[in-house]
Structures are given as structure tokens and as C-alpha cells.
């Protein structure tokens, strides 16, 4: 098990446990994290799990794939350099403690 810290747009933190190999979106949905919808179930067909990866985790998770990059262009909330779709972030032991801010608006 690893943990993921979600920060809502008002600064409230929620720490949840994630299974190794699980996506950050799945961990959020399983723990009813407000603002992470995951409407497409992780098939990279929507942008309803948009998050901003906090430092120092941005470098560790890397950038989006080309397809994710295209989906982020259509995200409802402001796109930032640290924007990622949480369905594309897979939990591994190296991401224990990963901290993300939930985008204020989702599709």
C-alpha cells in the first residue's frame, strides 16, 4: 500500500491508501475524493480526473503522453505545467506520499 494526498481547491487535504499498480484516479474514486469524477473509468476518453501534481513529485511522475496531452487541452480547468490526468498516474512504491491538487472544475 501507498498513500496519496489530495488537496481540494480550498486547501483541504485528504490522504487515502492506494494499492500498488492502481491509478491515482481509482484511489480517489474508491475513497470518494471530491472533485475527481473519473467519468470514463480511466480509458483516457475524458478529462474528469484532472489534477496538478505538487512538487517535488512532478519530475518523478514525468510528463503526459501525447494522447493525455491532447485530452488536457480540452480540460475545463486551467491547464498548468504540472497538469496530469490522474487516471494516467500509476501508483508504485516510489510514489508513496504523492501529493496532487484536484483541479477546481472537471468535465
From TrEMBL:
The 2Fe-2S ferredoxin-type domain, residue ranges: 2-106
Cofactor(s) named in the record: [2Fe-2S] cluster
Alphabetized UniProt keyword annotations: 2Fe-2S, Iron, Iron-sulfur, Metal-binding
Record-linked PROSITE patterns: 2FE2S_FER_2 (PS51085)
SUPFAM superfamilies with a match to the protein in the record: 2Fe-2S ferredoxin-like
Pfam families: Fer2
InterPro entries linked to this entry: 2Fe-2S_ferredoxin-like_sf, 2Fe-2S_ferredoxin-type, Adrenodoxin-like, Beta-grasp_dom_sf
Family that this chain belongs to: Belongs to the adrenodoxin/putidaredoxin family.
Protein name from the UniProt record: 2Fe-2S iron-sulfur cluster-binding protein
Organism expressing this protein natively: Aeromicrobium wangtongii
High-level lineage: Bacteria, Bacillati, Actinomycetota, Actinomycetes, Propionibacteriales
